[in-house]
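> agent: user asked for a holo structure of the chain below bound to copper (II) ion. Plan: (1) validate sequence alphabet, (2) canonicalize SMILES, (3) run complex prediction with ligand conditioning, (4) return tokens. Step 1... ok. Step 2... ok. Step 3 dispatched.
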Amino acid sequence: MSGSRAVVVALTVVLAIAVGTLFFMRSAVRSDEHTYPIHGQVQSITADRQEATVKHGEIKGLMPAMTMPYRFKAKSELDSLKPGDVIDGTLVIVSNDAFLSGVKKTGEAPLEKPPAETLVTGSRLDKAIALLQPGDTIPDGAFVNQTGRKQTMKDFRGSTVVLTFIYTRCPLPTFCPMMDRHFATIQERLKADASLKHVHLVTVSFDPVRDTPAVLRTHAKELDADLRRWTFLTGDVKAIDDFAGRFGVYVVRNPNDERDITHNLRTAIIGPDGVVKKIYTGNEWTPDDILADLKPVANAD
Ligand SMILES: [Cu+2]
């Protein structure tokens, strides 16, 4: 009797420790702010957005070497910099935001212009690919959806489509994860508005090697995506690059590190006839912007 009671007590203690550890781990994971030292070189500055594009080395535990635009917390820190400056600073990541703080200039170096940089400026891209403009009919593309079924954009004819491009492993909360959050918000708003019942959301991954249909299914679940109204597409790398390129999406994959994908952001509204209504660049738009622009398009259904 006392033996089994001892076992019960021992089990309770083990359970209490396990639960306690679990809570501790959860609170550690939830702790809002993560900081990472960042060392890099300023490539360009966008003063009105308080941003600089920084080419930086690997950020341990977060991302490989990349060239990306970063917002500065302090305008004064950005104001003292110019392209070519070598900097040290801290990348601060909170749940829904990312920015640089404590940035100090440590030197200067001539700017390199590798091919990827030419693409970033868009000059080469514009010449090589016919960028879609409002009024143009989108290409059909060739994709596989989250269930593994083949799809083209033609399958969405009859619905107004809001389209964006992401990859699920994107490490920066203000990039692909922001597109996902905005789409989740738009999905909820669409459900609440009967006049927008024919609007369909489409998210295309430009990392098809990792973003398999199964990965996209998991991702959709995490976003609470209603797959009747929100489709996730992947497929062949070249087919996706050709399609995405028409919207002005550039993707540079580092052959030496498959996690390293340098990319920009594009989101588009496409009419039920497959004609581009509007293309948004970057992460400056809000769900409200899209919903306001959808109203006249979707009501014309
Ligand atoms: Cu991203």
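> agent: step 4 complete. Summary for user: The first strand starts at residue 34 and ends at 46. The chain has eight helices and 14 strands.
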